[in-house]
Amino acid sequence: MIPVAEFKQFTEQQPAFKVLKPWWDVLAEYLTVAMLMIGVFGCTLQVTQDKIICLPSHEPRENLSEAPCQQLLPRGISEPMGDLRELSGLKNNLDLQQYSFINQLCYETALHWYAKYFPYLVVIHTLIFMVCTSFWFKFPGTSSKIEHFISILGKCFDSPWTTRALSEVSGENHKGPAATTAGRATVTVTTTAGPGKAGEGEKEKVLPEPEKVVTEPPAVTLLDKKEGEQAKALFEKVKKFRVHVEEGDILYTMYIRQTVLKVCKFLAILVYNLVYVGKISFLVACRVETSEVTGYASFCCNHTKAHLFSKLAFCYISFVCVYGITCLYTLYWLFHRPLKEYSFRSVREETGMGDIPDVKNDFAFMLHLIDQYDSLYSKRFAVFLSEVSESRLKQLNLNHEWTAEKLRQKLQRNARGRLELALCMLPGLPDTVFELSEVEALRLEAIGDITFPPGLSQLVHLQELSLLHSPARLPFSSQIFLRDRLKVIRIKCEELREVPLWVFGLRGLEELHLEGLFPPELARAATLESLRELKQLKVLSLRSNAGKVPASVTDVAGHLQRLSLHNDGARLLALNSLKKLAALRELELVACGLERIPHAVFSLGALQELDLRDNHLRSIEEILSFQHCRKLLTLRLWHNQIAYVPEHVRKLRGLEQLYLSHNKLETLPTQLGMCSSLRLLDVSHNGLHSLPAELGLLQNLQHLALSYNALEFLPDELFFCRKLRTLLLGYNHLSQLAPQVGALRALSRLELKGNRLEALPEELGNCGGLKKSGLLVEDTLYDGLPAELLAMDT
């Protein structure tokens, strides 16, 4: 006897898999269990009690009909008992062994195969049904996805963040009706439906109260740090799982195939069972050639379990019919609805999370199955598909991690003296930032999409904002707040078209610094948003690959004082727009691929500083035209390829600072001594072999940089520059220093590193401003210091 427990493994699945079993699969499981019980019961009877009892027929052979037992069917019931008593006395002259032999022989030859093997067929067919039903739970290509989905689904359902997110939405939805209730006070009590009441959502009970309104919002659980991290990991798992599962439809295809197979199997079983069920009969005629052994060739046999097997067969056929109807309904459900697409429209309307995306393929199919079990699962799972929900979670984790006290510890003064808070590489902007009302400058670098909340209005002292690779959205209310308060803004992004439009509406802005590239197709046009609203803009800095000066710069021509264009080596071709900048005081054209000084520069009558570093200047003959820039004080021509300075430099009598370092100069013109206002001259990192004596005429010179040249001596006239405070002579070929250096009484810093000096003049002690710390003699051949200088050391 086979115990039923042996078949339990065929129907037993992991308890979690039940969520993927709709009602028809559950009904089919119960039907298969019932059919299996019929088969096991029939097999038990077949093995232990099934047999036939045969008696020889005494009819003469010539009178023997085609069915020896047929005459017993009608007459056996209608004839009186007396006739049967007369027949009971017939002698067959057969012993027990002959009867046993006849019984076994007739069982094998005369009994129909359906009557013999019916219970076994029931068991086999039922096992096939079981395999078809659970095959997709076992097949490697589908079971892995199902197990992963069930695992994620359970965690999403039980996550505290799911409850919190839905409770917050519930509170927002209930806030409106509570606020609009007028005329009488109410008490609103909100309860949340449990998992067993899918789709019921939240219920409200409104109770009248005579005097006051007490609104009790939904209970919102507080997430600790561990729960927040777990929810964050769940969001990542759901994203990856969605990408993986939406690529194919193997689950959908496998479910269809196994359902079609069950329908085909059902039709085959139904047909042959209806055809052969009549073969199970109580009387069986048996003809066997056993005359030589028993003396008889015709027997009439009684199948003892035929009546019971017939009833079991009809019962089995009934179960098969019901099973087949469920399979046909399953096919109808599969092909009648678009199961490879799933819409969260109802969830979006109920929860208010409008960004929950629709899904497709296997992901959609599993969600359709989940809805047949409990639609609450899909609702709670959808929370982890919403980017809004994810951003809320990130914000909550950020607020836990970055408290106001921790942020205050990061406050420090920046180069402009403003109290600055700098945050870098955070997943978002903590709300606690807006509790620091003392912040004057906010620097955000490599932070994801930022949406400034209304709490921005708490930063009443904010004047400077830096957004470095941190795209930001600003609500209209916050734009109104910053429009007249913000003075300095820095934007750095991959492309300039990513610069938010609200930047160009800040009327009180004084400095605008933009860094990013124009797309290749727009680089030549270099179109920038209108600057007309920036009525107080004084400083504009643009680091990009522009082909020309943006035309919108002329919108601020009347009040722009400083313009910086850094082109990172891209050639700047059109500079005519510069002519309109009449109020410009400082101009930087850095790494713009310039080979000549632009003529548009000479039209800037108010220009005071010009920086042309990192270009390709070889000749500066146009320097004569700088005489039209009567206010020019600083000229920076460093990091170019200038080979000589023209004699016209003498025209720049008002020039105070001249930077010519990192060029290819070998000599300096004598006319340079006629720049009487020159206070700083930097010609380091060149190839100078000598200096003109006329440099001694520069009586206002305070800083002279001659490092990294090939000077072997200094002209004595150089020491007539009595106001010289800094003299840098490092890494030349000097072998001695003239005693006249003692005449430089104001000298406070002298660099002699990397020369060939063997001695220092004692007259250095006369340099009243020079201390030991201001004298740099490393890498020379001299080790000591003059005693006079040592005596001056404090």
Secondary-structure map:
Elements: H1 8-11, H2 23-48, E1 52-56, H3 72-78, H4 81-87, H5 96-109, H6 113-138, H7 140-158, H8 160-180, E2 186-192, E3 202-208, E4 214-216, H9 225-245, H10 250-276, E5 283-290, H11 291-294, E6 296-303, H12 306-336, E7 341-342, H13 345-351, E8 359-360, H14 361-373, H15 375-382, H16 387-401, H17 404-408, E9 412-413, E10 419-424, E11 441-445, E12 450-451, E13 464-468, E14 472-473, H18 476-483, E15 488-495, E16 511-517, E17 539-543, E18 562-566, E19 586-590, E20 609-611, E21 634-636, E22 657-659, E23 680-682, E24 703-705, E25 726-728, E26 749-751, E27 775-776, H19 787-792
Parallel strand pairs: 2-4, 10-11, 11-13, 12-14, 13-15, 15-16, 16-17, 17-18, 18-19, 19-20, 20-21, 21-22, 22-23, 23-24, 24-25, 25-26, 26-27
Antiparallel strand pairs: 1-6, 2-3, 5-6, 7-8, 9-10
Helix pairs in contact: 2-6, 2-12, 6-10, 6-12, 7-9, 9-16, 10-12, 14-15
Concise synopsis of the structure shown:
It is built from 19 helices and 27 strands.
Write up what this structure looks like.
It is a single chain. The protein is α/β, with parallel strands linked by helices. Helix content is 34%, strand content 15%. The longest helix has 31 residues, at 306-336.
